[in-house]
Each structure stands twice: as structure tokens, then as C-alpha cells.
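WARN no homologs supplied; continuing
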Amino acid sequence: MKPYSTHPNYSETQILFAIERFVIDVFTTGFKQPQLPVFKELLDLFDPIYNIDYSYSDYLSVFIGLKLIIDQMRYDPNNEHPDNYEFVLDLDDEYLKFLEIAANSMRAKVQQDLNQFVLQEENNTKSLVDYVEALFNHYSKLLIVRVDLGYTNEAKSDIDIDRFYRHFEFMRNRLSNKDTFFKDIQGYSWAIEQGKEKGYHVHLLLIYDGAKVQNGSYYAQRAGEKWQEITNGEGSYFNLNCKEYKNKLRQAGCEIGLGMVSRNNEGDWDLLLAVISYLTLVREDKVMQRLRVKVEKNMQTFGKGQYVTKKRRGIDRS
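OK structure emitted
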């Protein structure tokens, strides 16, 4: 594992992924002297972005536990340089063994967090399938729109969880209030993820009444443009309904239910299930893209509209 001081614009996401990799390394091989330079640099990088009010999960919580131990040494009156972590480079094997034992004592909590994530994703899948199935059976046609919302490569290093959360809260407000091009929407769902390269991003599913609107690519584009407006140009988007992308799917033999689907067409429900599965189904890369930090413990990483029969042909705005 290489030090990171050569990356002055290291993003929050990259720091968190590097910390996770470091903790996994400690779990695998123990805590050895050659790991100290990396440990010291990760402490330097994490200290300015650490927020005691945030909720950090699984491997990050282990690193924070180690950081708290190290900070007791850092702010000890006998430490002549409390403004940095240079002293970490001088830790002896006995102290490293102590840190290793401390890290291993938190293994069970890590596994518990990961198991909870998998269980939550399974529950999300079931609830989304039930929700979309109700819409599918109610309307003769549905226009299925997918758009991914993220950030430009230039902006990623400046985007932390707080900034992303505020951006997406604004987007969710526009969605639930059915502003402008969301007017004919009959259902929606979203899933927040954190990728090593993509950083913080959102998979957005929009479901329109197919009797009123037809052009899925247009509505995906409008949603993406709204995201760019909200983020003051820092945001980027990917339109999954564009012809080029759907043609690639067909050529690869993995067509999914993007665009118009109908309960009267055999096979359309299976195609729609493929769209739902991509948002919530647990798979290895999905676990890798889980959110490592939340602005609050109960911060949602998945959401959907509500199917209320009394309000049809509209949707509940909660």
C-alpha cells in the first residue's frame, strides 16, 4: 500500500476507501512496522474530514477506534508535537500488537454492519417490487426512466457527504413536489451509492403514466439537467434511456425494461424486474458501493414513493 501525500486533492471518498483497505489489511496480516507510514498518512488525511456527529460504518468505525487511541497519545502533555502524527512512525512492535488486538476486537461489529446492509437491501428489493407491481397493474402503460446522478471529475475532490446530501435533498424536494417535468410522474425510487471512482452518486428511477408521456430519454435528460442546475454545474448525469445505451444492452443480450412497458405485453414485467434489481439487489459490487458515512445515523440511502389507491391517478407526496 502506497502513501497518499502525493495526492493533495484526494477526495473524501478516496480517503474512506483507502482506510477500508488499510483495516482489511490489518485484519488479514496483522499490524506491522511497514504499515506505519500509511497509517500515519491516513490519520493526517482523515483528521480534517472527521466529524463526530456523522455515522461511520463497518471498517471505518474500526479506524476511528484506532484513531481515538492514537489521539490520546497525540494530546498527552508529554507529547511535544500535538499538531501532527509524526510520533506514530516511532510506535514499537508492542504497541502495534496492542492496536492489532484493539482492531480485532471490533471484527464482530464490522460483520454485523455488513450483514445489516445486506438485510436492508433485501428488504428494499421486496418493498420496491411490491410498489412497482402495484403501479404496473394499475396503469395500462408505464414509461420507465432511469438516470444516474453524480459529479464531474473536476468536482469530485470537493464533494463530501454533507455537500452531496444537501444537493440531493434539494433534488428530492423537486421530485416529491412534482415540479415541471415531474408533473406526470406516477412513481419513483432512488438509491444512494458511494463508488471508489464515481464517488457519491444516485441511481434514480422515474415512472410516468405512459398514456400521457412517451419520450423517456427526454425526461431523463431533463432530470439530469435539473441536477446540474442544483449543483451549480458540479453535477453530471448519465441518461440510461438514450438510444445508444439501450442499443448496447440489446447487443449484449441483456435488455431491461427501459422505456414503455405494458401489463398487456407478455414479458414486460420480467424486463421491469431487471430495472428494479439493479437498484436494490445485493451483489458483490453493490456491497462495495455502500455508503461508508452518513450525516446522521438514520440517513436514508434508499427511498420510493407510496402507492395510495385513493389518490390515483396521482402519487402521495410524502
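The chain has two domains: 12-105, 120-311.
OK
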